[in-house]
Every structure is written in structure tokens, then in C-alpha cells.
């Protein structure tokens, strides 16, 4: 019987999943998802390969579990950051800053684009997770249009373009350079959505 991590079987399962997620995340910083095996993930997590199958039947299921977890964590952080921020322009600035905090594992991972190595079903489920974050941006832009801060526009296109800009952005590690990069990104996105304060200025 494998040694139980934590005080209960539930804690053990949760901690094992966390170790698997951390292992996958770290491995994807060095190589593409297609070049990582379940054996690699088990080894990096310090668990037996059978333990992986106790949680996930295959590599794509593990990736989906990881992204579900990361999305839930991120959306929770994003919503907390937006609490008490009423002005749509400031909400958009907050959204941009939160996006800049994200580790860009999936955008920067070496190897083929994830969309080219995953099954159609997994691609669809990944898209569903992206929509959860997009809904927050859509809500901010809608509020801005309704109060006259942003002009009328095709929200579907704007949401896609803003997120494409943010997801492809490399933010420097140096604090001063990082702040300049984020400020430049804020100004670019605000201009792109037609923020009235910039148009007036």
C-alpha cells in the first residue's frame, strides 16, 4: 500500500494531484507537451506511474485537470482584484495587470502549438476554459460601452484581439522594465478599445 501523504485519503489525493500539476507545468517550460510522457511526469512528481493512472487515464486528461485547476485559481484571483473597482477603464487596467502575472506556460512552451497535438475533444474543452476568462473581459467592455467610456464595437472581435495581444506579450523579469512594459501594454489596449480618456487626451 502506498504511503499516504497528508492526514487523510482526500488530502493525499489532492496533494498528489498538485504534485502532478506542478511536474507537468515545470516540464512544459522545457519541452513541448507532445515530448512529455506520463512516465516523465510521474518521475518529476516523485510518484509511481500507477499513481498517475489513479487520477488521470491519459496525458490529455492530466492536462485538462491542470488547466481546469489553473483557470479556477486565476478567475478567483481576477475577481478578487476587480472587487470594488467600478470604473471600466480601471477594471480593464486591472485585467491587463492580472494577465501579466500569469505564467505563460501554454504560450511559451517549446514544441508544436498545443492545438496541433491534442484531440478535437480536448481542444474544445480547452476552449471552454478560455471562454470563462473571456467572459470577464466581455463584461468589462460591455460596462464601458454602456457608460460611454468605450465606443460601440464588435465585442467578439475585440475580446479575441485584446487577449491575443496579452497572451503573446513577454513581460520582463526586471521590476522597472516590467512596469514599463505593463504600462505600455495598458496604453496600447486602452487605445485599441477606444477609451475616451485617451481619445480626449
UniProtKB/TrEMBL annotation:
Residue runs in coiled coils: none
Key words, A-Z: DNA-binding, Transcription, Transcription regulation
Highest taxon of the lineage: Bacteria
InterPro entries: DNA-bd_HTH_TetR-type_CS (IPR023772), Homeodomain-like_sf (IPR009057), HTH-type_TetR-like_transc_reg (IPR050109), HTH_TetR (IPR001647), Tet_transcr_reg_TetR-rel_C_sf (IPR036271)
PROSITE patterns tied to this protein: HTH_TETR_1 (PS01081), HTH_TETR_2 (PS50977)
Transmembrane segments: none
Annotated region of DNA binding: 37-56
HTH tetR-type domain residues: 14-74
Pfam family, one: TetR_N
Keyword Lipoprotein attached: no
UniProt keyword DNA-binding present: yes
UniProt protein name: TetR/AcrR family transcriptional regulator
